[in-house]
Amino acid sequence: MTQQYARLTDSQWDEVKAYLPISRRRKHDLRAVFDAILWLTRTGCQWRNLDRQFPPWKVVHYYFSKWSRDHTLETLNDAVNRRERDLLPERQTTPSLLLVDAQSVRLLPRIGQDRGTDGGKWINGRKRSILTDTRGRIWRVEVHAANVHDGVAGLDLIYPDFTGQLPRATKLLADSAYAGQFAQTMTRLDRVVFECPVRDPAQRGFVVEAQRWVVERTFAWWNWYRRIVKDYERTVENSAGFVLVANIQLVLSSITNLSPYNF
Questions:
Q1: Which of 37-51, 172-186, 199-213 has the highest mean pLDDT?
Q2: CATH code where residue 225 lies
């Protein structure tokens, strides 16, 4: 991960542009728009203070909101995840082992939509549920009020049937918060085994759980993307959109390092 934001290289833009509507002429270049979204995600800048090297903030906000709603960012995120895995030795295009977890974050005070208090962590805001592979790459993200139980919020990660997107999925790991309704729903997916790691009662203090620590590392990576260390978005679609953009930026950087070509 780079310490400082760098604009898209030509080869990185080639990975992105196939999933954006670049066919017709526009007043503002979509490459500059997408660069602005990446920059804002990394720096945490307010929309109205967007750097002047980019198109006007209203233009960038329009495209970001549109791509968050119409699943463009989801499609792009899926594509770059697959592209990265294709470049890795002994990896298939999609993962077979998946992990689920959730993180509650504070929400900007003046926003009341999709807001709640996580009683366990005493966080007034929203809950972000993610589905990752064993590299910590995000394949799906859903955002709810923080008072929604982890297992209930996680149901949106597997509906509609996530095996259509991830056909090689055979096992899904989660903690005990998902042992109820979520686990019951998973039993209907005959070919996907659901597991909750069981902790040895004799162990005391913090214990690293096999594989599941990867999700916690993903949450830690988010500290590099200042726009998502707190939820500033009025809509859950935009909130999820910024999480996907952070993952896209991380994966594009990885693709640059993995590719045999000069990026």
A1: 37-51
A2: 3.30.420.10
